[in-house]
TrEMBL record:
Similarity comment: Belongs to the endophilin family.
SUPFAM superfamilies xrefs: BAR/IMD domain-like, SH3-domain
UniProt-listed InterPro entries: AH/BAR_dom_sf, BAR_dom, Endophilin_SH3RF, SH3-like_dom_sf, SH3_domain
UniProt name for this protein: Endophilin-B2
Main location: cytoplasm
Gene this protein is translated from: Sh3glb2
PANTHER family (UniProt xref): DREBRIN-LIKE PROTEIN-RELATED, SH3 DOMAIN-CONTAINING
Gene Ontology BP annotations: membrane organization
Coiled coil as UniProt keyword: yes
Keywords: Coiled coil, Cytoplasm, SH3 domain
Assembly notes: Homodimer, and heterodimer with SH3GLB1.
């Protein structure tokens, strides 16, 4: 009844102090944002909604979640099987095995990251929502009931006092004993006494409900002030989540750098071994390509580069493998400065080792793979991968 009258604006409501209201608002905000962060982190770690539902059901049934292969590990499995089918000794098979092994390592790193994030970040957030927040919600409901009881007693006492005052006014009138029925005076006096007893009962109930309300308000206040400790705990968990995520991406970056070095060092050999036979068989006769003797006497000597047929989709790396960077001259125009992004270890004598953040001069030569440039540092010269450079204008 009290709740309905308050909603209809027909009853007064005991208001909590401003500090208590702020604690309530802070607790509600913490709960709402914790739910959103928890859900979105679950989506980040497991984008598949069906898999998330399956894990939720296993958790509710108190059963162990079955081990699930990551996408990287599954891709590694397919690549390894394909390499075995095509031939592990072929260039394509060798590359599939290398890439597959890297994908397997990436999948294992992802599995470790998911496990670490689940224990150090998701579990504390979930424990707050299923533990501390449920306790807070329960005590808040009890406080709401205590507050309704208190306001109901206040309304009852107010009505009893109003009726007592009205009966007292009627009892103060001087009775006329000449009337045939002077009993109205007696009835008014007895009604005043009854309302006095009602007032005493209402005041006693009000004191009891006020005591219970104050006690429950103090309990609820202590729980709400504990939200600060919850924030501190979640802050520590957030640092651990960022640390594990940083380690995960650092591992992935290192794995891909290692793979890139492996593929970069073997790419020229693979394509050279594949197409050099075709290049030799399709090259024009030496007499057709040699300049006249008179012209040869007047022209400066330059390194000769075998002519290799252009194959669509395959870089012309034969010229690159035959070309010795130490014997070429930089073009008159077209050189640029470049900043090295990462350390690079030269795979052979034709490449130039790089150190991060150093400045070098780079340029391209006809017939070179677009993924490589000629780099110069003082008297040192060699091929450098474009992906390790930041070209400056």
């Amino acid at each position: 009844l009290q709740f309905t009258e308050e909603k209809l604006g027909q009853a007064e409501k005991t208001e909590l102090d401003a500090h208590f209201e702020n604690l309530l608002a802070r607790a509600d905000s913490t709960k709402n944002w914790t739910e959103k962060i928890l859900h979105q982190t679950e989506v980040l770690l497991q984008p598949n909604p069906s898999a998330r539902v399956e894990e939720f059901l296993y958790e509710k049934l108190d059963r162990k979640v079955p081990s699930r292969v990551t996408n990287g590990e599954l891709l590694a499995q397919y690549m390894t099987e394909a390499a075995n089918d095509f031939g592990p000794g072929t260039p394509y098979g060798k590359t599939l095995i290398k890439v597959g092994e890297t994908q397997r390592r990436l999948g294992a790193a992802e599995r470790d990251f998911i496990h670490s994030a689940s224990i150090n970040f998701l579990t504390p957030l979930r424990n707050f929502l299923e533990g501390d927040w449920r306790t807070i919600s329960k005590e808040r409901r009890i406080l709401q009931n205590r507050r309704l009881d208190l306001d109901a007693c206040k309304a009852r006492l107010k009505k009893a006092k109003a009726a007592e005052a009205k009966a007292a006014c009627e009892g103060d009138a001087v009775p006329d004993f000449q009337e045939t029925r002077p009993r109205n005076y007696v009835l008014s006096a007895s009604a005043s006494a009854l309302w006095s007893d009602e007032v005493e009962k209402a005041e006693h109930e009000l004191r009891l409900t006020q005591t219970e309300f104050d006690r429950q308000a103090e309990v609820t206040r202590l729980l709400l002030e504990g939200i600060s400790s919850t924030h501190v705990n979640h802050l520590r968990c957030l640092h651990e989540f960022v640390e594990s995520q940083t380690n995960y991406y650092a591992q992935c970056y290192q794995y891909m750098l290692d793979l890139q070095k492996q593929l970069g060092s073997s790419k020229g050999e693979i394509f050279s071994g594949t197409f050099v036979g075709n290049a030799e068989s399709t090259s024009p006769p030496a007499a057709a390509t040699s300049p006249p003797a008179v012209a040869a006497a007047t022209l400066p000597a330059v390194p000769t580069i075998p002519v290799v047929p252009t194959i669509v989709g395959v870089p012309n790396t034969v010229a690159e493998s035959v070309l010795n960077p130490n014997e070429v001259k930089p073009p008159a125009s077209g050189t640029r400065k470049a900043r090295v992004l990462y350390d690079y270890e030269a795979a052979d004598s034709t490449e130039l080792a790089l150190l991060a953040d150093e400045m070098i001069t780079v340029y391209s030569l006809p017939g070179m793979d677009p993924d490589w440039l000629i780099g110069e540092r003082g008297n040192q010269k060699g091929k450098v991968p474009v992906t390790y450079l930041e070209l400056l204008s």
